[in-house]
Design a protein that fits this description.
single chain; alpha+beta; Jelly Rolls; Arc Repressor Mutant, subunit A; four-stranded antiparallel sheet; 8 strands
């Protein structure tokens, strides 16, 4: 498992494989675009026969208005009708990058940034459009992303955002198919899974980082939503080098 602080954009030209992002499996096949955003835990599997382009870039390089860059956007999509333009943009970026490594020029960095922006906008054009009329959910999701370790009460977010709890619940149900409380709890569980699978933290430290004062309460919360204790989940997902997690 990897958890990077940068974006990963993959354009698959040939072959088949799998990428797991936040414990969800996504099939890799020709014509697929995969966009992994910073902070997400991911792993590539069975990719020896996969060919394509992989671009790594910092969050500040993402252009404003790129639909694929939304923090809650899809991981993978495939729209062959637009693939030619995406491939053209990727090839141009690769050629300029190779040229800049062979011979640096004063405007080389600016050119690379401009071409990356073109690629990201083209790739984002292919992404499924977000549902309309979801301002309340977008605000709630962003607040949860920032404060999930501060509060696990929907009313706290409603007060902070100026919405009623009913409005947030209805908006979240329409956009994500989950109640506002379930969405919030899901985010806490996801962060716990990321920590347990990717780091060597103890269950007590994982509890602290996800906003629990009592590790026992955290373990109860986690088990109720995953049917596993934190220690059992860590043992199932960690590599031997990560070390054990004690309950």
């Amino acid at each position: 498992m990897q958890r990077a602080d940068f974006h990963v954009l993959a354009i698959v030209d040939a072959g088949h494989g799998t990428v797991t992002v936040d414990f969800v499996h996504h099939r890799l096949e020709p014509g697929m675009i995969v966009w992994i955003r910073p902070g997400r835990v991911h792993r590539w599997d069975d990719i020896a026969g996969v060919d394509g382009t992989l671009v790594l870039f910092r969050p500040e390089s993402v252009p404003q208005g790129s639909p694929g860059a939304a923090p809650f956007g899809p991981v993978g999509w495939r729209q062959p009708a637009r693939q030619g333009l995406v491939r053209l943009a990727a090839d141009h970026l690769r050629r300029e990058y190779d040229a800049s490594r062979a011979h640096a020029t004063p405007g080389g960095t600016a050119i690379l940034h401009a071409l990356l922006e073109v690629l990201l906008l083209r790739a984002g054009e292919c992404a499924p459009p977000p549902p309309t009329g979801r301002d309340a959910f977008t605000a709630y999701a962003a607040a949860v992303e920032t404060h999930f370790a501060v509060s696990r009460e929907v009313a706290w977010y409603a007060h902070r955002l100026g919405y009623s709890t009913r409005t947030l619940t209805r908006a979240t149900q329409n956009a994500a198919g989950r109640s506002a409380k379930q969405f919030l709890d899901d985010r806490v569980v996801l962060e716990a899974k990321r920590l347990l699978a990717h780091t060597g933290v103890t269950v007590a430290e994982c509890a602290r980082r996800t906003g629990f004062d009592d590790p026992a309460n955290f373990s109860k919360f986690f088990r109720a939503r995953t049917a596993l204790t934190p220690g059992a989940f860590a043992a199932r997902t960690r590599t031997p080098a990560d070390g054990p997690a004690s309950n």
